[in-house]
Amino acid sequence: MYQVLYRKWRPRNFEDVIGQEHVTQTLKNEVVSGHIAHAYLFTGSRGTGKTSCAKIFSLAVNCKNPINGSPCGECEICKEAAKDALLDVSEIDAASNNGVENIRSIKEESFLVPTLCKYRVYIIDEAHMLSTQAFNAFLKVLEEPPKHIIFILATTEPHKIPTTILSRCQRFEFRRIKSEEMSLKIKYICEKENFKISDEAIEIIINSADGAMRDALSLLDRCVSCCGNVLDDEKVREILGITDKESVKLIYQYIKEKNTKKSLELIDDLYKSSKSMMGLCEGLLNIFREEMVKVISDKKIETELREILENLTLLSNVYKKMSEGCDSRLELEIAVIKLCLGNSFETYKINENSENVGLNGFLEIPKHSEPETLPPVDNDKSLKEIKDNKDTEIVKDAENKTKEFSKWESVIEYIKKNSKSKSFYLAIKDSRAYEDGDFVLIASNKNLLFDLLGESTNKELVRNAIQAVSGKRYRLGPYKRNKENKENPEKIKKNEDNKVDMFAQKAKSLGINVELE
Q1: What is the mean pLDDT of the chain?
Q2: Residue 345 — very low, low, confident or very high, per pLDDT cuts 50/70/90?
Q3: Residues 6+ apart with CB under 8 A from 459
Q4: In the 3-class helix/strand/coil scheme, how is 68-96 assigned residue by residue?
Q5: Alpha-carbon gap, residue 510 to 350, rounded angstroms
Q6: Cβ contacts of residue 11 below 8 Å, gap of 6+?
Q7: Which helix (DSSP H) or strand (DSSP E) does residue 403 occupy?
Q8: Rounded distance, CA 262 to CA 37, Å?
Q9: Which one is predicted more confidently, 75 or 498?
Q10: In this predicted structure, what is the pLDDT of residue 378?
Q11: How far is CA 15 from CA 11, 18, 52, 71, 175, in A?
Q12: Number of CB atoms found within 10 A of residue 352's CB
């Protein structure tokens, strides 16, 4: 029966573990000296050797003839372990055994004397998945452990483990494995397996593995299964859906040239070629990171560095959304459009003799665009929205020229499928919408809806939903018809002057500079 590479080449002793010498050397010293702790915590990213080291250590402390702190592989205990028949070493997946009853059963077993070994060892993988009650029960065992018991906890998220547990464990941090070390290991394995692979193909696999040796071997296995024993960079890139560096550089160049059309056309071509949108986003992140490092080293002006950091933040958020299951192509297209247009927007002035009031950051118009007359804004509401969410869209009054947005039911259906907040869907499902130029104005008698729309996540979801069903990017606002004002004109003028003064004062108290013409 075929055995996958990451299992076949799993380390059997500490010398086989790569990139974690700071951990393996300490563990070997403890075995040699006999100074064994009762609880260990192995932390670090996936595929870096946490569980492998836990298994090796559980053998080393019980081995009849350890060699420099590593298991000999020849004694009765090592042979039983090789057959997965060693009863005194238990590996527990906390993701599926995270209840208090599971820990209580371990507590009961821990008082039993080992059958063959010196120590009874419990390896608890994904330890952060234990419930609060399970951690409390586990703490009782750690406080007064039997002398023949060793616990080894492995986790990628140590911050989720209570400090009362952390303080009772000897902690080891596993690092991401360096590219050079991974390259040597892959070349060695390929030589033993009779695989012919180019250095460029190895580099692609390593970059995709992100410092995880297990991931690298899984990717190698996948490539071999598809293409046989001869692999080059072109085949590996095609199998893994990796965008070539030239395409990433070309999109980056289009972004620098503010060429939105060519950027989107290239993304479309890459998408149709089954290239990974996450990989493309990651490639852009790497380029902007290199640009950031260069700017810092060259001591360039602060404005240029700020722009790069804004671009990195935008792409990082998009990458996170992709990893959470959002539409990767759409998210990337939106990000590239924003990168092409620029992330800095005009500051608009308040004209005290006009109804047209605007605040910096309310209306997303690029620097190179001429500011047009802005629609009216409800001052009290806008100030509240500034305080709650500085990215809130401008509040736009609707005139009689508005028309009903015909695809609003499809928008709501999209939100139903993609919203992580049931309350937001329930708030918006009975609403209506109207189209006014480049605005979609939402009408609802539920104040909760407009409170929820103040949250950037919900607002972006609505924008994406509208774009998905209409193919056009709209700005958002609440629907509110202009009412005829029958008051005395002089009184109106006085009220408006007072509103503007009050508006400016409130804005200033919120740290927003407002300039009056």
Answers
A1: 80
A2: very low
A3: 391, 392, 393, 453, 476
A4: CCECCCCCHHHHHHHCCCCCCEEEEECCC
A5: 16
A6: 17, 49, 52, 53, 56
A7: strand 403-404
A8: 61
A9: 75
A10: 42
A11: 8, 8, 12, 10, 17
A12: 15
Q: Which residues of 437-476 are buried (b: 16+ CB within 10 A; e: fewer)?
A: eebbbbbbeeeebbebbebeebbbbbbbbbbebbeeebbb
Q: Which of 134, 513, 460 is nearest to 324 (CA)?
A: 460
Kindly state the greatest CA–CA separation across the chain.
102
324 strand-pairing partners: none
Write out the DSSP string of 368-390.
Answer: TSPPPPPPP--HHHHHHHHHH-T
The residues, any chain, with a CB within 8 Å of residue 103's CB and separated by 6 or more, are 130, 134, 137, 138, 141
Dist CA 55 CA 243 (whole Å): 38
Percent of the chain with pLDDT over 70: 80
Flag whether pLDDT at 92 surpasses 70: yes
Per DSSP, 421 falls in state: -
Tokens of 500: 């503007």
**CA dihedral sign, ordered 269, 275, 281, 284:** negative
* Burial of 319 (C-beta count, 10 Å sphere; 0-12/13-18/19+): buried
User: Do the strands 120-125 and 89-93 form a parallel or antiparallel pair, or are they unpaired?
Assistant: parallel
Provide mean pLDDT across the span 364-376: 37
How far is the C-alpha of 51 from the C-alpha of 25, rounded, in Å? 16
Q: Quick one: how far is CA 515 from the chain centroid?
A: 40
Question: Within its chain, how far is the Cα of 14 from the centroid?
Answer: 32
Instruction: List, in sequence order, the alpha helices (H) in 151-196.
Output: 163-166, 179-193
3-state secondary structure 101-113: HHHHHHHHHHCCC
With 0-12 / 13-18 / 19 or more C-beta atoms within 10 angstroms meaning exposed / middle / buried, residue 330 is middle
Q: Are 174 and 20 in contact (CB under 8 A)?
A: yes
Which tokens go with 220?
């190698």
- Give which of 117, 4, 135, 123 is closest to 61, Cα–Cα: 117
Report whether 91 contacts 154 (CB < 8 A). no
- Residues paired with 180 in a beta bridge: none
DSSP class per residue in 483-517: PP--S-HHHHHHHHHHHHHHHHHHHHHTT----B-
Within 8 A by CB and 6+ apart from 398, the residues are 434, 436, 441, 479, 480, 481, 482
Which pairing describes strands 89-93 and 39-44: parallel, antiparallel, or unpaired?
Answer: unpaired
Sheet of strand 439-443: strand arrangement = 403-404, 432-436, 439-443, 475-478
> Please, what is the Cα angle at 352 between 347 and 356, to 5 degrees?
60
* Residue that has been written with the tokens 């420099």 in this structure: 68
Beta-bridge partners for 477:
441
- Are 145 and 173 spatial neighbours (Cβ–Cβ below 8 Å)? no
Q: Which residue has the tokens 């547990």?
A: 165
